[in-house]
Amino acid sequence: MKNRTKWLCMLFLMGVFSVFAQQKNVTGTVTDFDGVPLPGVNVIVESTTNGTQTDFDGNYAITVSYGQILVFTYLGLRTERRTVGDQNVINIQLQEDAEALDEVVVVGFGTQIKRKVTDNIAKIEADQIGGIATPSFQAALIGKAPGVQITQTNGKLDGGLNITIRGLSSVTASQQPLFVIDGIEMNNNDISSTTAPTNPLLALNPNDIASIDILKDASAAAIFGAKGTNGVILITTKRGNQGKSVVSLDVSTSYGEPSNTRDWLNGEDYIELLEEAEANTNFLADRGLTVDGLLQGFAGDQDFRNVDTDWQDFAFQDSYVQNVNLSVSGGNEKTRSFISGAYTDNEGIIRGNTLERYTVRANIDHKVNDWLKLGLNSSYASTVIDRISSDASFLTPMQAIAQIPTAPAFLSNGDINSNTLYANFLLQDRFSFRTSKQRRLLGKVFAEIKLMEKLRFQTELGYDYLNQTVDRNTGRLAPFQSTNGQTFASDNGAEIISTNNYMTYDTTFGEFSNFAFVLGSNFTRFKNRTTSVTGDGFPTDDFKSVASAAQISAGDGTFTNWAQLSYFARATYDYKGKYLFKASIRRDGSSRFGAENQFGYFPAASAGWIISEEDFLSESSILSYLKLRGSWGINGNTPIANFGSLGLFGGASYNGESALEFTQGANPDLKWEETEQINFGLDFGFLNNRISGEVDYYKKKTKDLLFNTRVPFEALLPSHRVLQNIGNLENEGFEFSLNTINIQTQNLTWKTNLNFAINKNKITNLPNGEDLITVRNILREGEPINSFFLLEYAGVDPANGDALYVLNTENPDGSMNKNTTNDPTAAERIVAGNPNPDVIAGLSSNFNYKSLDFSFTFQGQWGGQRYNNAGRFQEAGLGNGLDNQDQYVFDRRWQNPGDITDVPQARLFENNGHSESTRYMQDADFIRLRNITIGYSLPQQVLDRIGMSRVRIYTSGLNLLTFTDYRGYDPESSDDSAISNTNSGTTFYSAPQARVYTLGLNLAF
């Protein structure tokens, strides 16, 4: 018995030793089809969580057991498997994979291999937007995709962004694209309680984004039907991968400053100009006043001739930003997860403007069994913003530049000077505040059921809640405050609940045919509730809540909602992988429309031909890829008003009694705007795709434009308008994208992307053919949308310094009278410019040399104009007030007969050129070095010794250089008090964007 036990123990120990003996350390090098080492190749032991990645030189090392299988995967190359035998070294050369040469793109309710896509879709990966120090992810997309214009309103941290895809397709309806995150529609509406908009997408953490797909043509966006006219931006967030857990930490610190400052008159030059302007009119002398007496009145207890205040320095400040991002991802065969948290503390370049944001995210995927998968996507963000007034407010810091430079900001005793030309914003900064807090909860739960081998059903429930509270307090010493303090508080909550239910079927039949089908439905319900209250009179400024107010002076509240029910279908078919076809249709029903037109149909079709797969090209050593594609489709757009088709009554007060009033006329025929678009494209690749790109031509025609049209006074409507479908416009354009691998060696890789787009926009039909004029913009048949409508400035009369205007009146023979006049009331306005550029472009380049990486992006635009509405005060030669003047006026002003210049004689309080005209319209062409990044990553050998998988230190710059002839702060900035649904192209004391320098560290282990 003892001997048997002894032998059994010996056999057990021999088995254990045998198992350990079978484990070995396998090393090797992975190269591509040209023999170039591949960094970042995933090397996984099949059916386990044991894995690693190749280092920068393509080398790997992994511990495995005899008989196990190593799996080598790399995007764009064929997956390889090797069974481990007696060998200790396994070298792999990965080959091209025809199905993986292009990345997977998200197409809405599914994905496609880009090689087989017949639409126009631009894809942006996470590494293209990482490390760019902007408050919002949209700003990181600038210059990355052809035909996508992204304009930051101004330099405020909370400022809105305008995103225009292939030109403006509406006048009064939304002009912004639809945003969809992980399959769930997002609320992209501004919910600010002031005229200055906030960016509703500030809650998204750019580090959580895996990729962004931009659907530009009608066929791509048609699956979203009535919301796809302005394009669709699909955001996919990061998910966990099977394998060991990875912890990533990104930390960065940034310093910012204004990307541009302007030259304003100092005290000495201002006095000289004021004395000259007074001598030319005797305005003060005729009233018994003097220049000295006038200026001393603003100087307080100081001598104005000894004061030289640079008010611009008070408006701007140095910016400091702290960013921390932490994420954990990983999983096994059953469950994968990605969990992240981030913190941002951003002090803006404008005094009093700060932003603090916390975000958390959890994405979980769980495979219950072979036929059921469950998942959760969820995120929460809290963003606190110290806001400043809109550009049109006297209290915004940017309007401080209008102050007289001989007026001190502070008195001798340190008190703020309250007797300035305009209200001293420093009083507002010290004795008041406006704090907005945004809270956003985004979530989706989903289940995927495998009904059959090739048939799947997916159901999704999405929730998007965006809430903004505003607390504004104005102390008794703040400007324009007539009571003992005032407090305003508001609460605005917007909620979207949506469900998607759809089936997908993928099959191959015969030898060459592949077919896929999607059929589903979508239901979306939007609710919005707002309340606000204002209280006046407080015991002291220490009391700031409404509860302490002596009087509740105002209050308001609204509740609104809308719902939409949709059905959609899409089918794709390819034959031999080179003849490609797609068709889709969507039926939308919305509560926003009249009873006669609640439902609309949005069809689309597209086709493609991969010519390079044909026998006559397949063996070409030069041409590696050539695809011809074309698409057609119809998209829609909805009005902003939720009840635009209904006749409405509202509550009112009449002689102190409650009453009803008629507020809106009914239009039961109200329906969607419809945009029909055709697109023809060519995708190409040369020299094994070392050179590749896309060329596209498109034409968009929008009909049934939504307009608030006038009705007779007898209709007794307060606004005398009814929402109707009248008017057409069109966009026609060309897009080009070129990708090149300039150098690819063992140690050096250099890649470049160049993209540009040309777009021409014009209105083709308006109600009764009549012009619609809004201040200085016009809608006119045959002209671009929102064209500038201004007097034509003709320069200065050299004999007397008068400002001149072109008459542009009609001669008896029908010709245009191009004579000039010094009387602006005698001249007629003309269509003078276009706020929307004709050409936009971007250039990006990436270098990798061993452990060093370097990248940069340029952006540019040409053909558009900006109207400087503040120029009527800043460049008026003191004819329109005492505002400080641009140095340009001082240097170029007319002074003596015979002077040739475009700046008229300075005449105090006399209109000599400050009428609204093309004098204040400038070309907004520019080229900007948008961002530049330099990084260094520790070599793999060092990482192995310290137990890390990545250590990278980097520095980056944002908005470092701008090349432009535009004299204002920024050729992109716009008046945020005028931004609504139209791009007016007007700037008014609008701040430039920030120039930001960043130092960051990326860690992973």
From TrEMBL:
<keyword id="KW-0472">Membrane</keyword>
<feature type="signal peptide">
    <location>
        <begin position="1"/>
        <end position="21"/>
    </location>
</feature>
<keyword id="KW-0732">Signal</keyword>
<keyword id="KW-0675">Receptor</keyword>
<keyword id="KW-0998">Cell outer membrane</keyword>
<keyword id="KW-0813">Transport</keyword>
<dbReference type="InterPro" id="IPR023997">
    <property type="entry name" value="TonB-dep_OMP_SusC/RagA_CS"/>
</dbReference>
<keyword id="KW-1134">Transmembrane beta strand</keyword>
<dbReference type="InterPro" id="IPR012910">
    <property type="entry name" value="Plug_dom"/>
</dbReference>
<dbReference type="InterPro" id="IPR023996">
    <property type="entry name" value="TonB-dep_OMP_SusC/RagA"/>
</dbReference>
<protein>
    <submittedName>
        <fullName>TonB-dependent receptor</fullName>
    </submittedName>
</protein>
<dbReference type="Pfam" id="PF13715">
    <property type="entry name" value="CarbopepD_reg_2"/>
</dbReference>
<keyword id="KW-0812">Transmembrane</keyword>
<dbReference type="InterPro" id="IPR037066">
    <property type="entry name" value="Plug_dom_sf"/>
</dbReference>
<dbReference type="InterPro" id="IPR008969">
    <property type="entry name" value="CarboxyPept-like_regulatory"/>
</dbReference>
<feature type="domain" description="TonB-dependent receptor plug">
    <location>
        <begin position="114"/>
        <end position="232"/>
    </location>
</feature>
<comment type="similarity">
    <text>Belongs to the TonB-dependent receptor family.</text>
</comment>
<dbReference type="Pfam" id="PF07715">
    <property type="entry name" value="Plug"/>
</dbReference>
<dbReference type="InterPro" id="IPR036942">
    <property type="entry name" value="Beta-barrel_TonB_sf"/>
</dbReference>
<dbReference type="InterPro" id="IPR039426">
    <property type="entry name" value="TonB-dep_rcpt-like"/>
</dbReference>
